[in-house]
């Protein structure tokens, strides 16, 4: 099984804020199913969405990018 650091990280951030996948999707103006795909390691968000994720969770964009690109 491939480790999904980005998906695991998003899952933890989301749970810490008591957000559902649907609610996070609403905040990002995307479908909640997209959040599910990130958490399962199927897809990754666009750079624009990553910027919005960094703002919502107050994390550095570089951290999110490193979790995606250093683990592929």
Secondary structure: elements and pairs:
Blueprint: H1 5-16, H2 21-28, H3 32-39, H4 47-57, H5 61-69
Distance between the termini: 13 Å
* Separate helix tally: 5
Helix and strand pattern: HHHHH
Residue runs with pLDDT of under 50 for 5 or more positions: none
What is the helix fraction of residues, given as a range? Answer: 55-70%
Strand count: 0
Described by the principal axes of the CA atoms, the overall outline is globular
As a whole number of angstroms, the C-alpha radius of gyration is: 11 Å
Per DSSP, what share of the residues sits in E-state strands of 2 or more residues? under 5%
Calculate the mean pLDDT score and round it. 93
Main sheet specs:
none
**Oligomer designation:** single chain
Structural class: mainly alpha
Structure description:
Helix content is 67%, strand content 0%. It has helices at residues 5-16, 21-28, 32-39, 47-57, 61-69. The longest helix is centred in the N-terminal third of the chain and has 12 residues, at 5-16. The protein is globular, with a radius of gyration of 11 Å.
List key phrases describing it.
72 residues, mainly alpha, 5 helices, 0% strand
Short structural description:
With 72 residues, the chain is mostly helical. The protein contains five helices and no strands.
């Amino acid at each position: 099984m491939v480790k999904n650091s980005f998906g695991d990280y998003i899952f933890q951030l989301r749970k810490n804020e008591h957000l559902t996948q649907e609610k996070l999707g609403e905040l990002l103006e995307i479908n909640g199913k997209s959040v599910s795909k990130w958490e399962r390691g199927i897809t990754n968000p666009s750079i624009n969405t990553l910027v919005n994720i960094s703002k919502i969770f107050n994390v550095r964009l570089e951290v999110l990018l490193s979790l995606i690109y250093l683990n592929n």
